[in-house]
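Q: What would this complex look like in 3D?
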Amino acid sequence: MVWITWRQHRAALIGMAILLGACALALGITGLRMQAARASLVRSGCGLFSAPITSGCGSLQSAYFRAGYPLTSNISLLIIVLSIIPGVVGIFVGAPLLARELEAGTYRFAWTQATSRTRWVVAKLLLVGGTLTAAGGAFGALAGWWLLAADPEVFASRWQAGQFGLTAVTFAAWTLLAFALGAFAGALIRRTVPAMAATAASVAALAGATAWKLSNLLISVGPVIHRAALLTVTPFNFSPDAVSMPGGGMVIGPASSRVLRTWFTGPHGQTYATYSSSMNPLWNLKEPSQHAWLASHHLTLWIAYQPAGRFWIFQSIEGAAGLLLAVLLGAAAVFVVRRKAG
Amino acid sequence: MNAVEAAGLSKRFRRTWALRDCTLTVPAGHVVALVGPNGAGKTTLLNLMVGLTAPTTGSVTVLGGEQAGSAAARSAIAFVAQDAPLYGNLSVADTLHLARNLNLRWDQRRATGRLAELGIPLNRKVGKLSGGQQAQLALTLAVARLPELIILDEPLARLDPLARHDFMASLMAAVAEDGLSVLFSSHVVAELERVADYLIVLSRGQMQMSGTVDDLIAGHCVLTGPAAEADIYSERLPVVHIRRAGVQAHLLVRMNGHAEPVPPGWTAHPVDLEELVLAYLREPGASALPGPARLPGPAAQSDTGVAMLS
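A: Here is my prediction, written as structure tokens for the whole assembly.
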């Protein structure tokens, strides 16, 4: 079945390899350039921003920001484009896998040979699915590395929905899931183009739900709760792990953590939301007075956050959920194939 | 051993019954023709035999009791579906490779030998072959699997007369060489007599006739006489079909194990296969199915399955 699977689907697989290869090449080249530029910045003791233009740091800083062009000119768009790739895989590799056989009628040949149709479809799903998962994992790792090289502190929050999906674990899981959705749609609908459309719609719906709701729901489970300090001056290179306060201040959680919410507690245990009207006097004050005001009212600032170390736990949870769903869809596709009446 | 046994086999698609109450016993070692008009249910019946479809009611077993579609059945039966489905973007050699990988028994030399004889180049894409060549390739794949039974669904439908002749010649050569059984469906009745020695007639989802060609021909005769008397005798004799031609009428009579006395002024002569099949196809209510198997004895064959013209 290995030869058969390769020979029948090599056009789609080669197409995907070209797509991923081209993207990987672009990411690889710009990523390495950015890494090199950043290394020379660090060696010269310069920060990423704020050096006077006359000092040597200025040219190194502009070299760093130029290194990632054109990909870094709009990172949000790049993240969206990269996040679409698993869907593209599902549509162009997953949907035609079974749909083309059923549409063209060649199943009447393939399923009357000595090899059972169960073995035939399971082998195809495992071989193609496994290959795509491995490729997805490698590409996800590359994308994660690139995001780190592009924005190690300034813009990147790997906890955010878009970037959360661009690591080895989640990218691989999404690629496999989109493929499984496509294969199941193909088995059920039995026509290639409608199956592709159905796959596109369902992957988009699932990805949308995850990005908007499910990711946040997942990450808000069981946070660590700490006192925090109110920063009255916004640092120039504001951290993505920070939560901005009204009036321009910031609260920063531990490095690379995900701050979920902040609130104040009073001397008798009352809770005040950051944006509640009781806190308005605080935000109207000028900066140094804010500390004094808080102290005089015996208010303490708290944050709830997910520490950096839990990032991979949540990644694994999302990855495992994607894998489980993919396996269920694959099993459903096998079931539909076995049941199909001629 | 029976090549195919079916009992009460029926298949419904949504609300239409494609096949109703099919009961047949096809012996092995014959070339069986399944004949019927378009929409009769031939493809459905063949799909049930190879396990592409499951029956709604009834059962079908193949090659001595194997479940249709089971592993043993699939490895011993080669199926060529309607229009010989093949992968158009694979080369002929790739198609052979694919078929070899999917089967337990495979005779590569036989396959390449046949293709060389037929002049089909191994490196051409299957989609670029002519209809006749594709049909021959499909047949080659079937034969190279070394099956016990080959089932073909309307193999001649899209072939020109020359291609048809070549195809049937190829098929008969393979039968002679390997002694395998063949079951093919057709709505081309004319060429059957040369090729088939067992016949099944299917019409509107129901079986009308099944039996060896010799038995069926021996069991019928045509009485020719004046048209005016046709109606009188048609009530007394088991007539399947009346064909009027001017002043003459031809009555196709089923002989129930004994020769009917020929009415005065009438002549009797044997029927040929095409006339027999066409007559039954024109009379959907008529059927000539074998009764339950009897122990050998002097009793006359009963015609439990016969419905008369009313």
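A: To summarize the key features: The first strand of chain B starts at residue 2 and ends at 13. The interface with chain A takes residues 47, 50-54, 71, 74-75, 77-79, 81-83, 85-87, 90, 94, 97-99, 101-105, 138, 145 of chain B (CB under 8 Å).
Q: Very helpful, thank you.
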